[in-house]
Design a protein that fits this description.
Chain A is mainly alpha-helical. Chain A has a domain of 90 residues. Chain A contains 21 helices and two strands. Chain A is elongated. Chain B has two domains: 305 residues, no CATH class; 153 residues, Jelly Rolls. Classes of the chains: A mainly alpha (478), B alpha+beta (484). At the A-B interface, α4 and α6 of A face α3 and β8 of B.
Chain lengths: 478, 484
């Protein structure tokens, strides 16, 4: 054969062989699984970089992942965090089906690295990095692993939802702002998301599903199961991801997802409403007592689904109901509190003594906190409750305001009755005087609340308008 | 950059080249020229330049960062410089092994060796040629990295650019409090303690140790509801600082952890009672470095150029600032350009050492063996973490945790000294690593560059060069022909 044809011929042969190999690859993969030749499923829909590293590096992937892990640890020890996202990306890409790798890398970013920064915005970025690693990559590569969903739900429930991190309010505010922008208001419009007609609706759906990986159908399903959720708060997302996990993952470890759900439902009742978003980025939360019924139903559902160890969920349910009764009483919803007391006694006979009433239970809970406190602390406690009373009036939380005022009075009465039995005089000033003093200090123009709040309070308390300041005499030409 | 600047640079290059030629002499220069020509003839230069440019330009497109402009620039700087160094190190090793070993094997060396030139001059000429090649490639890569960094930075908002200018694109030096003389303080305490002399020598040693630790603790620990004062003396540097910001770089440990994992940080500048500035309360994590920015340095220093810093501990646990790196103040000492060039200079020192290693190996061995040996040595050097742990544990085979004895026995007797020697060399080179300093805006001082040149090039490179020249001079060139 002439030499000039050799190279083109070789090139054609190479292309032919490659094409044939590509055609045979599918069958080979199938046979590989059928014959049990590999424990790892061949990758599907993987990005080119991952596909390349998986095939080209073979068993050496583990070694490279180890080396990268060592580097990541060293860099972290030296407080050099700028490489961590890249290293975590490589490590997880090299071991995409090793669940613990995803969990550790995401946890490291959301918990260990985030607190290294003092600026809340910096911390939030790292919490987000952890969330995005699990949500955007960990779940697609491990859709049947309950622990990945659990971890993601836990980040929402614990890292953002709890108050252990000094920057937790920043996280909540940032997330609420993002969700408000995402849904175009405080709540998602499911009708529009499920059936988008306008370009704007289609674009919104694209962001909801593409960036945040939220499926409107599943969101709606979660609301159907657990009642209306406050999607601006992290608990709703914890419930969502745990629900998705329960639907998609293997049964192993699903108890952890159920825990995510009922604990988040519990928190949703305790502070599931945003009643005021202050300009400084902080919130005023309030309990959402309307969620008690769906939350209790959620617990029941989890008890029914948990076949291995339902007693754990039952104990949690019992604790939740007791908390709910106390909350209802505190919000002056005594009839509902009585109803839930009856339900609790029927479901969990050991939860209360047989003759316990809502009032006696609430008073017991209240006074057990102040049994050992002295005069100064009791005074501070009464003043604190009175402050809350006025704040709730300002926020139009009238039921709560009435209940809080009642509690302040009960504490005062309780202390008064105890102090009378003692030899030395330790009495508090009369309750109306404390009430007046606290009110006047809040309305003080120099050191009290902002003027618009004072005006609201004045209206609520039917107080007369303040006297207008004296008008100074205008200067006259001489 | 205008034409005058380019002309100035070209003029300087010509002067430096002329000076270098005059210093090494025409024979060494001629061999260096031959090495250059070979590099161009075999297209090595162009292939390497292409690879370097590709990595410098392509790498930033693939990298993920932490989401901040600062993080992006840091990762870009770190990875591009590391890749350039790694590429140049391996190519230098390959080239230095090849240029000498192949010349000998292909009999070209016999032609050169019969000319009026000493063997050591040939060896040195090869080293010079490879070094100049590295200078050219490193300059090219450095220029690209520098340009790319600034180009990417200019795309950022002005606020971000300002942060970069003040924290990354800068050469920041540091001031620390002088270390207390703990031994002197222990001696003073002992003089006031007559019971000490009555103790047995072993007890005296123990008591001395405990006293030293107690004194160290008084310098390091800030008890709850107490404050600690540091005074940093800027000396003559106070005239150079101007109104640039200062950065407190602090790290502390705590006696007890709390649920949030962070602690309240309150800083007062100036006297504690009448501070010039007070920081807002900060939430600080322990055991990590924090940079606290202080605006307008010239308003914070006193007339003698001293900065007084107080840390107020309002936490419920004691806080410990280590004496070594608990608190330092960073201030602007110079620009990024000069710092970057000095950093490249240190990288060049390492490349000269690598070239010397390759040439020394090729002076004694054939090309494949020399390449294998020198690349193996380079890889051993890169795995210094393993070497460190072996030397720290005192054994290659691990420790029996029940008996506490080393398990390797006689192997340790042979390998441990070798590992210690390699580790000493590796640490000597790595202590000058400029990439870390450049990525956090720390000064790479002229002194560092000079020290790197002395230790890496003159000391280590000198030893390898002496060995290489010796073997090459003693080598029978005609006996090593590959093709007869």
């Amino acid at each position: 054969m002439p030499r000039r044809f050799q190279k083109p011929l070789l090139l054609v042969l190479a292309v032919l062989f490659l094409g044939t190999a590509a055609l045979l690859q599918r069958d080979l993969n199938k046979q590989r699984t059928e014959l049990g030749l590999t424990r790892v499923e061949p990758l599907e829909n993987a990005p080119p970089v991952l596909a390349f590293t998986t095939i080209a590096l073979g068993s050496f992937r583990g070694l490279i992942a180890n080396a990268l892990w060592i580097r990541a640890n060293e860099m972290q020890m030296e407080d050099k965090f700028f490489e961590q996202v890249q290293l975590a990306d490589w490590i997880t890409k090299l071991e995409p089906h090793f669940v613990q790798v995803w969990l550790v890398q995401a946890w490291n970013m959301a918990y260990n690295i985030s607190v290294k920064f003092r600026d809340p915005a910096d911390r939030w970025r790292w919490v987000r990095n952890g969330i995005e690693l699990l949500r955007d990559q960990g779940i697609p590569y491990n859709p049947k692993e309950a622990l990945v969903y659990r971890e993601l739900a836990w980040f929402f429930q614990h890292k953002m939802g709890q108050n252990l991190d000094d920057a937790h309010m920043y996280y909540k505010y940032a997330w609420a702002t993002e969700m408000t922008q995402l849904f175009g208001g405080p709540r998602p419009n499911f009708e529009e998301l499920l059936n988008p007609k306008t370009d704007e609706a289609k674009a919104r759906l694209q962001v909801v599903t593409g960036k945040y990986k939220l499926e409107p159908a599943l969101m709606k399903k979660a609301e159907e199961a657990f009642g209306q959720l406050e999607w601006r708060l992290p608990e709703a997302h914890a419930i969502y991801w745990a629900t998705v996990g329960l639907e998609r993952s293997n049964p192993k470890d699903q108890i952890t997802l159920r825990r995510n759900i009922y604990q988040s439902l519990h928190v949703s009742v305790l502070r599931g409403r945003i009643v005021l978003a202050r300009p400084d980025g902080s919130f005023v939360f309030a309990p959402d007592l309307n969620k008690i019924q769906p939350a209790s139903d959620g617990y029941e559902k989890m008890i029914a689904e948990e076949t291995d160890n339902p007693d754990i969920v039952r104990r949690a349910h019992r604790g939740f109901l007791k908390e709910a009764i106390y909350l209802l009483y505190n919000y002056n919803r005594t009839a509902e509190a009585n109803r839930w007391m009856a339900i609790t006694k029927q479901k969990y006979p050991d939860a209360f003594p047989p003759d316990e009433t809502v009032e006696s239970y609430a008073l017991k809970r209240l006074t057990e906190r102040i049994r050992d406190v002295d005069q100064n602390r009791t005074k501070a406690l009464v003043e604190g409750w009175l402050n809350q009373h006025f704040e709730n009036l300002i926020l139009d939380e009238d039921d709560r305001a009435v209940a809080v005022l009642r509690m302040a009075r009960q504490i005062w009465d309780y202390y008064d009755s105890v102090s009378k039995t003692r030899a030395e005089s330790r009495g508090l000033e009369p309750f109306p005087e404390i009430y007046r003093r606290v009110r006047d200090s809040l309305m003080d123009p120099a050191s009290g609340l902002p003027p618009e709040y004072v005006a609201r309070l004045r209206t609520k308390l039917n107080l007369p308008a303040p006297a207008a300041p004296e008008t100074p005499e205008a200067p006259r030409p001489k | 950059m205008n034409w005058h600047a380019i002309a100035r640079i070209l003029l300087r290059l010509t002067i430096v080249t002329g000076l270098l030629r005059w210093m090494v002499g025409p024979r060494v220069w001629a061999v260096a020229g031959l090495t250059w020509r070979a590099a161009f003839r075999f297209r090595l230069f162009w292939v390497l330049a292409g690879l370097l440019l590709l990595s410098v330009v392509g790498l930033p497109l693939l990298l993920k960062n932490d989401g901040t402009a600062r993080g992006f620039i840091q990762i870009m700087l770190t990875y591009t410089l590391s890749v350039v160094t790694a590429l140049l190190a391996f190519s230098t090793l390959w080239l230095s092994c090849g240029t000498l070993a192949r010349d000998i094997e292909e009999c070209q060396m016999q032609v050169v060796a019969v000319k009026p030139i000493s063997r050591w001059q040939i060896w040195l000429g090869k080293l010079l040629g490879i070094t100049l090649l590295n200078v050219a490639l490193l300059s090219l890569s450095g220029l690209c990295i520098y340009g790319l960094l600034h180009w990417r930075a200019r795309q950022l908002p002005e606020a971000q650019q300002k942060i970069l200018r003040q924290e990354i694109f800068v050469a920041r030096a540091s001031v620390r409090e002088p270390m207390p003389d703990l031994e002197a303080e222990v001696d003073a305490a002992i003089r006031n303690s007559p019971e000490f002399q009555s103790l047995a020598p072993a007890q005296q040693q123990e008591v001395r140790f405990q006293m030293k630790e107690r004194i160290r603790a008084t310098h390091q620990i800030v008890a709850p509801n107490h404050y600690r004062k540091w005074v940093f003396d800027f000396g003559l540097n106070r005239h150079l600082i101007g109104d640039e910001p200062l950065f407190l770089r602090a790290k502390f440990h705590v006696a007890q952890t709390n649920a949030s994992g962070s602690y309240l940080g309150l800083w007062r500048i100036g006297s504690f009672d009448k501070p010039i500035a007070i920081s807002p309360p900060q939430s600080l994590a322990p055991s990590t470095f924090h940079e606290v920015r202080l605006e307008a340095a010239n308003k914070l220093l006193d007339e003698q150029g001293r900065l007084t810093v107080n840390f107020e501990n309002r936490n419920q646990t004691a806080v410990m600032f280590p004496l070594e790196d608990g608190l330092e103040v960073l201030y602007r000492q110079g620009g990024f350009g000069g710092n970057f060039v000095r950093g490249l200079g240190i990288i060049l020192c390492s490349l000269i050492l690598v070239a010397a290693l390759g040439l020394a190996a090729a002076s004694l061995m054939s090309f494949p063996v020399a390449a294998f040996v020198s690349i193996s040595l380079l890889l051993v050097g890169l795995s210094s973490g393993t070497l460190t742990s072996v030397v720290r544990e005192g054994t290659v085979g691990g420790v029996n945790h029940e008996s506490g004895q080393a398990t390797a026995g006689w192997i340790d007797v042979i390998l441990l000294p070798i590992f210690k020697a390699i580790l000493w060399v590796v640490n000597l080179v790595q202590q000058f690593s400029p990439v870390d300093s450049l990525s956090v805006g720390r000064t790479v001082a002229w002194g560092d560059l000079g020290l790197a040149f002395a230790k890496i090039v003159l000391l280590l490179g000198g030893i390898l060069a002496a060995l290489g020249m010796y073997f090459f001079t003693r080598r029978e060139l005609a006996a090593t022909q590959a093709h007869t």
